[in-house]
Specification:
The structure holds 2 protein chains of 2 kinds.
Chain A lengths: L17 H12 L7 H7 L3 E11 L2 E7 L4 H9 L3 E5 L4 H13 L4 E5 L18 E9 L2 E5 L7 E4 H8 L11 E6 L5 H20 L8 H18 L1 H16 L9 H15 L2 H28 L6 H27 L5
Antiparallel strand pairs in A: 1-2, 3-8, 4-5, 4-8, 5-6, 6-7
Helix pairs in contact in A: 1-2, 1-3, 2-3, 2-9, 6-11, 7-8, 7-11, 8-10, 9-10, 10-11
Chain B lengths: L18 E6 L5 E6 L3 H26 L5 H8 L4 H8 L3 H7 L2 H5 L3 H11 L3 H5 L4
Antiparallel strand pairs in B: 1-2
Helix pairs in contact in B: 1-2
The chains are: A alpha+beta, B mainly alpha.
Organism (chain A): Dyadobacter endophyticus
InterPro entries (chain A): BtrH_N, DUF4872
Protein name (chain A): Peptidase
């Protein structure tokens, strides 16, 4: 990866999560120097929890610790009054022509891709996951210059390779999805503060009062109830694979650790500076605690899939840990709610 | 998580990249730090792959014994499930399920075989002649 590329204006940003990274790097390129990953994540109300009913992913439960793909970029840009262009294509040739035109104009663009055919990823990570994001910021010797936010350095892809991952198939198929900020007006401190407040309030709403029992803080209880039954219902082997899947969703590359909870803690700390409000940074501690608890539960779950813990009481303990996490997160969001920010 | 507690257990990412994590520094403020990996999640990934390899081996045996067609084996080998294979080939799941039967598979047209071969990244003859 020795491309000392990085065009004059575009600078690669390594982040924990790909969509935060694309949002941060593209907005910085357009002059919003203050943008950081925690800020993008918080303004985009990125923190979430959901166990999607009836759906399995890689033969395990479909659990996510963050909001739906695309939402962070969309919300963060919107709250800063940044106009964005997004396009999907049915024809790969048209998609490539559009991208080439943008590259020729020297505009870095975000692309949604699938990771299964992403050649620079290690084989161990190449499952059929279609909501990865990267930035194309130029072309050299017939290869696209790629800034993948989860990587330390920039890389490149041939035209065929990029076209293939842009047209990966299956759930959340990217369909050549391409997006970039279009028009950016000057941004005042007041706008940033407003964006932060609306991001927090939307996140409070999503976690506390979303309908149904499988999303938000109640989603954690939903999964906890499932965990109690898995050993009897699925057998020890499958149950332990399911726990492994939770840990992967929570801790794998892209989460910043602790299922995005540390990232949210970092956001609140940064937000407290903008809002000049000590109370917000105190609540940041609660999310640090939640993140630490998620990691403790992961260690316990690892005991099961390593075959060290096999009893029903171990599953019960894991389920109880999740209930405690739910309480911590619920209280933290209730505290955020009671601050009555922006009123 | 405190900065000094950030695990540095080399795993699958080792020669690829280190990952950004958010940790607390000595002043109790958040900052980013790079981690090589964590054994807890490495083992989760390993056990997911053990499961994949077992499914592939089961599929191979099913083809060898004449229960399933090569389409089934290559679907498992490429980590696909019904919706994904359906997306790459354009066939509806109902038909794909039929194509799992060796008797139906034998009669598939060259065009349909080509679609499968392209989805699996193999040649038509590799697909046709796979015996398990």
């Amino acid at each position: 990866m020795n491309i000392e590329s990085q065009t004059d204006a575009f600078h690669h940003v390594q982040t924990a999560h790909c969509e935060n990274g694309v949002t941060t790097a593209l907005l910085r390129y357009h002059g919003l120097e203050f943008m950081s990953e925690p800020l993008a994540f918080g303004m985009g109300s990125g923190l979430f929890y959901i166990q999607i009913p009836f759906l399995t992913v890689n033969n395990g439960p479909a659990i996510s610790f963050r909001t739906m793909p695309g939402a962070i970029f969309k919300r963060t840009c919107k709250s800063l009054g940044v106009e964005v262009t997004r396009k999907k294509f049915s024809n790969p040739a048209v998609a490539e022509a559009f991208l080439d035109q943008k590259v020729k104009q020297g505009v870095p663009v975000g692309c949604q891709v699938g990771v299964f055919h992403l050649s620079y990823f290690p084989k161990e990570y190449r499952f059929h996951f279609n909501a990865h994001n990267l930035i194309v910021f130029g072309e050299r010797d017939g290869r696209y210059l790629i800034s993948d936010p989860v990587m330390e350095d920039v890389t490149s892809l041939s035209k065929e390779e990029l076209s293939r991952v842009r047209f990966a198939q299956g759930p959340l198929a990217p369909k050549g999805h391409i997006y970039f900020p279009e028009k950016i007006k000057p941004i005042s401190q007041e706008m940033i503060r407003k964006g932060i407040v609306s991001g927090i309030r939307r996140n409070v709403r999503d976690m506390l009062s979303i309908p149904g029992n499988f999303a938000g803080v109640n989603g954690i209880r939903h999964t906890s109830n499932h965990v109690r039954k898995w050993r009897d219902k699925l057998g020890l082997r499958k149950a332990s694979l399911y726990l492994g899947q939770i840990v992967r969703m929570q801790e794998e590359i892209g989460t910043g650790g602790g299922g995005f909870r540390f990232l949210y803690g970092a956001f609140l700390e940064e937000a407290a500076g903008y809002l000049q409000d000590e109370r917000v940074s105190n609540i940041s501690e609660d999310f640090t605690k939640a993140g630490d608890m998620w990691r403790a539960s992961a260690i316990k779950m690892a005991g099961v899939y390593k075959g060290r813990l096999t009893e029903q009481k171990d599953f019960e303990e894991i389920a109880d840990m999740m209930l405690e996490i739910r309480l911590v997160e619920k209280e933290a969001f209730q505290k955020l709610s009671s601050l009555k920010l922006g009123k | 998580m405190k900065k000094e507690d950030l695990p540095q257990d080399p795993g699958a990412l080792d020669k690829f990249t280190r990952e950004v994590c958010y940790v607390k520094n000595q002043d109790g403020k958040y900052e980013t730090a790079l981690s090589k990996g964590w054994d807890v999640k490495k083992q989760a990934l390993d056990s997911a792959w053990e499961e994949v390899n077992e499914r592939v081996e089961d599929a191979r045996r099913a083809v060898a014994s004449g229960e399933k067609s090569p389409v089934y084996y290559f679907m498992e080998l490429r980590l696909m499930d019904m919706p994904v294979l359906s997306g790459y080939t354009g066939f509806f799941p109902f038909f794909i399920k039929r194509h799992f039967k060796p008797s139906v598979f034998k009669g598939l047209s060259e065009r349909k075989l080509e679609k499968y071969a392209r989805a699996f990244d193999i040649t038509v003859s590799e697909l046709k002649n796979f015996k398990g």
